[in-house]
């Protein structure tokens, strides 16, 4: 599996270039002490990063050539007046590994996948490349290339392991498969590719939602479990990382199915992740699987199951010692109780969630929880009050969620505004609901999420009897036009 071609930033066995500038900035502090300073600086600006000594080591060794946007904001806050390159990092456009491509004016969302994309044919004799894509961009930035092209290409590049075959092909799951006796032992490069695939899927989901990503993400998941099933991890620590990475990838793909309305497939992926967690004895992964299973059960109307799985997740999470994880699971439980109409139990769960959340972020917070900040706390409360029929109270929380949300995370911004529009429509404020609905419509060119479309459809249905109210008729016309085009 020697690399024949490689884009900068890809997981590879080739030694990285150290970052001596960042090492000098650390000074006499240990990596752990410096990681603590990074987390403290993040709190100062309302950011969340799960920085530890290992992350600092990865930066200084050059394994992390360019930080994600959250870390970028923290580092620039810590060292004002400097740029990323002043801190020894590579420019983001270099790490991306390719320039932007123009796209046809009317690229359909179901267009054939580009060659080299998981699930699409690849010309014979070509080698895969790997790279690190950029993070979500502000809405005001024009995107002259196809969203689906970028999604497919990013997923392909994120999971290629640095050779002429993908992980799936190398393990006999593709047209380039090799005989079993030639399979190499699974090492750090392969595991790092699985972990990177998880991060990139989450990044793209933040920007676009699940509908356009689910099919493309299935191939990396199959490849990850093929690696797991091969039973050839070089070390016990590598095997543990591989189990954790495969399980997190199953949850990420399950979430894409969930967000795009494929509930049965989502449930299967979450169950797969839970089984992997149990085999590996990984309470953090187990808590994550239960957390998403609870969310799915609530959306599917299985409210008692939502309560039970959230409670099971809290049991597992006690070993993780992350207050924020316990807060999120308590919110999941509250959502289940709200769906059952049990206001008292819902309020008790919400109170527990607030108590855990108030303890602030911790170094033990799982990496996947980077989305869970005050906007999400407000949004989940809005969902509880909406389920209990307290529309005005729900709208207050939804408005706060939409106001606080970072505009780069387009999917969540659209989701919170859709929740707000729906709550306002039922609270007797049709003009405000129409205005919020128009804001969601403006984001639909960037986001493909069946959940958001369903919420917008509910809003339109609630507003039709109020078509004469200010702004409502125009919103309904725009919504119906968008629904027809879709």
Automatic annotation (TrEMBL):
Annotated SUPFAM superfamilies: TPR-like
Top-rank taxon: Bacteria
Chain residue ranges for the region called Disordered: 1-28, 95-148
InterPro entries, alphabetized: TPR-like_helical_dom_sf
Biased composition (Low complexity): 112-134
Listed name of the protein: Tetratricopeptide repeat protein
Organism whose genome encodes this protein: Streptomyces zhihengii
């Amino acid at each position: 599996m020697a690399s024949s071609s490689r884009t900068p930033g890809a997981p590879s066995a080739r030694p990285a270039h150290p970052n001596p500038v960042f090492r000098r900035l650390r000074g006499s502090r240990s990596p752990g002490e410096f990681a603590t300073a990074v987390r403290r600086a993040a709190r100062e600006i309302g950011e969340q990063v799960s920085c530890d000594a290992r992350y600092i080591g990865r930066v200084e060794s050059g394994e992390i050539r360019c930080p994600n946007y959250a870390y970028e904001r923290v580092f620039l806050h810590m060292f004002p007046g400097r740029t990323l390159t002043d801190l020894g990092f590579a420019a983001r456009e270099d790490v991306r590994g390719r320039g932007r491509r123009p796209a046809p004016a009317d690229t359909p969302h179901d267009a054939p996948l580009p060659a080299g994309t998981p699930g699409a044919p690849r010309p014979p004799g070509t080698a895969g490349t790997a790279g690190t894509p950029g993070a979500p961009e502000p809405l005001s930035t024009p995107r002259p290339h196809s969203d689906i092209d970028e999604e497919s290409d990013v997923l392909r590049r994120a999971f290629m392991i640095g050779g002429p075959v993908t992980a799936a092909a190398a393990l006999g799951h593709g047209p380039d498969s090799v005989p079993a006796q030639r399979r190499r032992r699974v090492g750090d490069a392969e595991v790092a590719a699985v972990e990177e695939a998880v991060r990139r899927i989450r990044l793209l989901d933040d920007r676009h939602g699940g509908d356009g990503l689910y099919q493309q993400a299935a191939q990396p998941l199959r490849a990850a479990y093929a690696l797991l099933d091969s039973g050839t991890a070089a070390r016990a620590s590598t095997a543990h990382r591989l189990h954790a990475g495969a399980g997190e990838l199953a949850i990420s793909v399950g979430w894409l199915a969930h967000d795009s309305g494929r509930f049965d497939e989502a449930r299967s992926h979450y169950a797969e992740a839970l089984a992997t967690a149990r085999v590996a004895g990984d309470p953090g992964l187990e808590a994550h699987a239960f957390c998403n299973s609870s969310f799915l059960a609530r959306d599917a109307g299985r409210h008692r199951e939502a309560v039970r799985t959230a409670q099971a997740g809290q049991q597992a999470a006690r070993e993780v010692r992350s207050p924020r994880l316990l807060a999120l699971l308590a919110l999941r439980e509250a959502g289940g109780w709200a769906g059952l109409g049990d206001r008292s139990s819902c309020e008790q769960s919400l109170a527990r969630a607030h108590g855990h959340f108030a303890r602030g972020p911790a170094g033990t917070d799982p990496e996947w929880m980077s989305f869970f900040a005050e906007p999400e706390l407000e949004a989940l409360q809005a969902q509880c009050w909406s389920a209990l029929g307290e529309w005005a109270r729900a709208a207050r929380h939804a408005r706060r969620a939409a106001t606080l949300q970072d505009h780069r995370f387009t999917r969540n911004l659209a989701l919170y505004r859709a929740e707000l529009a729906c709550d306002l429509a039922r609270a007797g404020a049709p003009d405000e609901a129409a205005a919020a609905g128009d804001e969601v419509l403006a984001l639909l060119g960037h986001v493909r999420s069946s959940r958001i479309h369903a919420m917008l459809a509910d809003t339109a249905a609630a507003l039709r009897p109020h078509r004469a109210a200010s702004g409502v008729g125009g919103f309904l016309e725009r919504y119906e036009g968008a629904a027809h085009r879709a």
